[in-house]
Design brief:
Elements (H helix, E strand, L loop, with lengths): L1 E4 L9 E3 L2 E3 L9 E8 L4 E8 L6 E8 L2 E5 L4 E10 L3 E6 L9 E3 L2 E4 L8 E9 L2 E12 L4 E3 L3 E5 L4 E7 L7 E5 L9 E3 L2 E4 L8 E8 L5 E11 L5 E8 L2 E5 L4 E10 L3 E6 L8 E4 L2 E4 L8 E9 L2 E12 L2 E8 L3 E5 L4 E11 L3 E6 L9 E3 L4 E4 L8 E9 L2 E20 L3 E5 L4 E10 L3 E8 L8 E4 L3 E2 L1 E6 L8 E9 L2 E12 L11 E2 L4 E5 L4 E6 L7 E6 L9 E3 L2 E4 L8 E8 L4 E11 L3 E5 L2 E5 L4 E8 L5 E6 L9 E2 L4 E4 L8 E9 L2 E12 L10 E3 L4 E3 L1
Parallel strand pairs: 7-13, 15-21, 23-29, 31-37, 38-45, 47-53, 55-61
Antiparallel strand pairs: 1-4, 2-3, 4-5, 6-8, 8-11, 9-12, 10-11, 12-13, 14-16, 16-19, 17-20, 18-19, 20-21, 22-24, 24-27, 25-28, 26-27, 28-29, 30-32, 32-35, 33-36, 34-35, 36-37, 37-39, 39-43, 40-41, 40-42, 40-44, 44-45, 46-48, 48-51, 49-52, 50-51, 52-53, 54-56, 56-59, 57-60, 58-59, 60-61, 62-63
């Protein structure tokens, strides 16, 4: 194979390798027609290719249409990137800062964002690239949302010489606007404003007039709100007085305490709270005349001073606050959290209180709600003693320490060494027919739980000497399964159980017979549904129906575990009192006859009655403030949560979420009362209550007309 140039010479730099022609650093004079010759032993052939070399490569140019764009929130935003260049450039879009909206679509130079959000407001760049270079141009997307300016007081009357604050904000927490107060003729001298709060000090008659709060969003949207200031003529001033009540109080550690400063004076004095020789912390909340100490700690004790000041002078008073130390209990189990003894011996656990204020009370109980047997003594010093123990005392014992701050628990385990005992299922004598699947279960009981293992003899071929086969070691229970048994599987199967207290072996005799006629037995069933739902603490009774099975031997077991220690079996009935969550699972009834083995099962699931936590339980706030109540259910969910006002109507502007949060803004005295949270789930319902107190004078309220489309009336 070889190449040549038609009507000219091959470029000096051309490389011809077995039919592949490479021309590096191509130039215009390299253009033309190139011919490939192929020679074989008996024939030849040719083909041609034409190379055109552009005289000039052009760097891309880019423009974006439109150059910028403003859309309302949830509208579609679209930009088009128009490019030129030789060769044709490739186009890429990117966002200046932050991540591109995952729903944005880039195709054919277009950038499209459907249902734009405020978070999509940003600079966007279109980049065009080819071999001649790269060009990038930016555009800006603005996303608007409707905002509403709220002025805290739409009319203010202030005496001469007093201080007032004009407060405005917007109703959309997702937008961070610039808030600016203004007045025709300019703001009064000495005024100061920060984040929508305009402070006017030493008010004079010239301060009267209309004040406008303007909110400007980052994308340039503007809204306004107005308030009017009226200045009263100068009145006679009186020296302020301050009285703190109570003058001495004790707060429990971790709780909330409140002291109040009652002041008099003309004009109305300004109140300032401080602590002697220390600074107030984030746990100290000042709301006008009230000082609230939340989550009080020992270091919060001391003297708190209320200072009342007006143009006539200063008055002050103080109160002493003590914090009563409180702490949750701390426990330790002595001598160890687990002890192992033999039957007839003595043991004790000492539940030692290592901390807690006030001193906690200590009680012992048995895990799972089981009753204490007569050989157990509990003493006031936290000691539980076991004397002359039998197998009944084995298990977990729970020490609970309780004081005003809550309860903590610690668990001690008593292990009683007792020789192992074997329970065989389905029986010691098992009959099967050729081809049947046989399962032999060996359960070891004892203290501690023994290891169990199957052993049997098996001849590899007819006439060979049998060899002993050992199964795997297992803790507590092991099942040997023989698939499609034959006559050679007949024989003895040995289960051995071992623990530190001894060893025991039981034998199962398997007899495999030929099937002469089909069995007339109907099998085993459990009466009732295959899945049951019960409440914690109920008594559960399960009955196994073996009608039609000759000489049935019935045994009960639990899949992947042991039947609860407090169970009782009578005939074909299993009874489990005080059923707990840990007992949930699949319970299996095994029935065996000389002909066949049968099994069936039932699933038992425990539901927990829901309970509620209300936070906070008591709220005290001033008119115009915001109240938040949180309702947190515990139990088997999901839950439907609803807030109601007891003996009243819930504020129509209150909002509540499906997660249990109730929020009431701009509260008034009408919002004082008792509130009920109702949580309903699959396992029942529960309710809880909170109390709200609204104090102080209410500010004038701005009324916004709302049109009810159902009856065309106007509401305020």
């Amino acid at each position: 194979m070889s190449w040549s140039k038609v009507g000219g010479l091959m470029p000096n730099k051309a490389i011809d390798q077995n039919g592949v022609l490479v021309i590096p650093n191509v130039r215009p004079e390299d253009g033309g027609t190139y011919e490939c010759y192929g020679y074989g032993m008996f024939s030849m052939d040719t083909d041609r290719a034409t190379l055109r070399v552009s005289a000039q490569q052009v760097k891309p140019t880019v423009r974006i249409e439109p150059t910028f764009q403003t859309v309302n929130e949830f509208e579609t935003a679209e930009f088009r990137c128009v490019t030129t260049g030789r060769p044709a450039p490739t186009v890429e879009w990117r966002r200046g800062t932050g991540s591109m909206n995952p729903s944005a679509v880039v195709s054919g130079g277009f950038l499209r964002i459907q249902a734009a959000l405020r978070s999509d407001e940003a600079q966007y760049f279109c980049k065009a690239s080819n071999v001649a270079g790269t060009t990038e141009v930016k555009t800006i997307l603005y996303v608007k949302s409707d905002i509403k300016v709220i002025v805290r007081q739409v009319a203010i009357i202030a005496p001469i010489g007093s201080t007032e604050q004009l407060i405005c904000y917007i109703d959309d927490n997702s937008v961070r606007p610039t808030l600016i107060w203004s007045r025709n003729g300019g703001l009064p001298p000495g005024s100061a404003q920060v984040n929508g709060v305009l402070t006017l000090k030493n008010i004079q008659p010239s301060f009267a007039g209309s004040y406008v709060c303007t909110a400007i969003t980052p994308n340039g949207d503007k809204e306004t709100g107005t308030t009017t200031l009226t200045v009263r003529p100068e009145i006679e001033t009186t020296l302020p007085t301050a009285t703190v009540t109570p003058d001495r109080t004790t707060i429990t550690q971790g709780t909330t305490g409140t002291i109040r400063c009652n002041v008099t004076g003309t004009p109305q004095p300004k109140i300032t709270w401080s602590k002697s020789r220390e600074q107030l912390t984030t746990r100290h909340q000042v709301e006008g005349e009230m000082l609230r100490i939340t989550n009080a700690q020992v270091e919060d004790h001391g003297v708190y001073i209320c200072r009342a000041e007006n143009t006539a002078g200063i008055g002050q008073d103080w109160a002493t606050v003590e914090v009563e130390r409180r702490a949750k209990p701390k426990l330790d189990i002595y001598p160890a959290i687990s002890q192992t003894i033999k039957t007839g011996e003595i043991a004790l656990f000492h539940c030692r209180v290592m901390g807690g204020e006030p001193p906690p009370t200590v009680t012992w109980s048995r895990a799972g709600g089981e009753t204490m047997v007569s050989t157990i003594d509990t003493m006031e010093n936290g000691v539980i003693m076991f004397k002359g123990v039998t197998e009944e005392e084995a298990g977990d014992y729970i020490c609970t320490a309780t004081n005003e701050m809550g309860s903590v628990t610690a668990t001690a385990t008593l292990i009683i060494q007792r020789p192992p005992r074997i329970v065989l299922s389905p029986s010691k004598k098992v009959f099967a027919v050729i081809g049947q699947r046989v399962s032999l279960e060996c359960t070891g009981e004892g203290g501690p739980i023994p290891t169990v293992q199957w052993k049997y003899e098996r001849a590899p071929d007819s006439g060979h000497v049998p060899k002993q086969v050992e199964g795997a070691l297992s803790q507590g229970s092991v099942t040997l399964t023989l698939n499609a048994v034959s006559k050679s599987d007949s024989g003895n199967y040995y289960c051995t159980a071992n623990n530190v207290a001894g060893s025991v072996t039981e034998t199962v005799q398997l007899e495999v017979q030929e099937s002469d006629q089909p069995s007339m037995e109907t099998g085993v069933t459990i009466r009732g549904p295959k899945q049951r739902t019960v409440k914690e603490g109920e008594t559960v009774t399960i009955e196994c129906d073996t009608t039609g099975i000759q000489n049935a031997v019935v045994r009960w077991r639990k899949r992947d575990g042991l039947v609860p220690p407090n169970h009782l079996v009578r005939g074909v009935t299993l009874t489990i009192p005080n059923f707990q969550i840990v007992y949930s699972g699949e319970y299996i009834c095994s029935a065996s006859s000389p002909v066949k083995n049968y099994e069936t099962s039932v699933f038992i699931i425990v539901t927990v009655t829901p309970s509620l936590t209300i936070s906070p339980a008591i709220v005290e706030t001033k008119a115009g403030g915001t109240v938040q109540l949180r309702c947190q259910p515990q139990g088997t969910g999901p839950f439907i949560i609803e807030w109601l006002k007891v003996d009243g109507v819930l504020n129509p502007f209150a909002t509540q979420t499906r997660y249990g949060l109730l929020e009431i803004r701009q509260v008034t005295a009408a919002d004082t009362g008792r509130y009920r949270c109702l949580a309903t789930g699959r396992s029942g319902s529960a309710d809880g209550f909170a109390i709200v107190y609204v104090t102080g004078k209410e500010h004038p309220i701005e009324l916004y007309p709302l049109k009810d489309l159902r009856n065309s009336e106007v509401w305020a």
